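WARN retry 2 of 3 for item q-0093 after timeout on previous attempt; input resubmitted unchanged.
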Amino acid sequence: MPDQSFPSQPLAGLARVALVNPSRYLGNLLLAGGLMQDFLAHCRAQGSELLIVLDEAYLPLLDGALPGARVLGYPRSRLRHATLPQRLALWTRCLRELRAFRAELAFNVEDDSVSDRLTRWSAAPCRVASSAALPSRGYERVLPVDFASRPAGREHRWFAYQEVFGALGLPATTPGYLRLALPEAGP
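OK item q-0093 returned
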């Protein structure tokens, strides 16, 4: 059974951390995005490099929003429209890039099948599931975050995301969304 506890400083001494969140839902990305940005700053303060795996369809939107993070695009749309050999090549390339990062800790913030598979197969020595709803096999730690039944006053999904990041050492923060870098106005 995976451990559900975490050390008080889970990033201490880790050079590379992978956050796996290729959610197909833009709303979930916007909700978790501010926490991702705060976690990126937290990783940098701890001396850890952060790789963030996101649906590649949203990468243009995020241009400049995650400075200093390495971002890997999950090719969801291309996978859907590809032939079987092309799908295998796309999936393998994405997984190879994730594994080449050589994360010491990989975790997901969604309890979906794509995040689950990528986190399990990341080759990180410590793999963390965001929810006990996921099968525990293949994870070293499973966070007891309940995405469905939330306590009163904390029903919003943002609070579940905050629990995941909080377990990984992110100090408490006020609710907020992804902060986008707006392009500068032309002449």
